Amino acid sequence: MLVSLHDRRFIVRPGPLLVEKTDRAVLLARVDRLAVNVFGDFAKAHRWLRKP
Fold this sequence. Notes:
The structure is a single chain. By secondary structure, the protein is mainly alpha-helical. The chain has a domain at 16-50. The protein is built from 3 helices and no strands. The chain has helices spanning 5-12, 19-39, 42-50. It is elongated. The mean pLDDT is 81.
């Protein structure tokens, strides 16, 4: 799953995520899963997700 440098600092901090960050994490997980299903390959899906 792609996580921006900005969001990585929230991962290492202890404690619960804010609602906005939780929603974003769930959305990113769904997009990641769908991309892998569409491309049929983890590497291809993540390469596509990283393209600007």
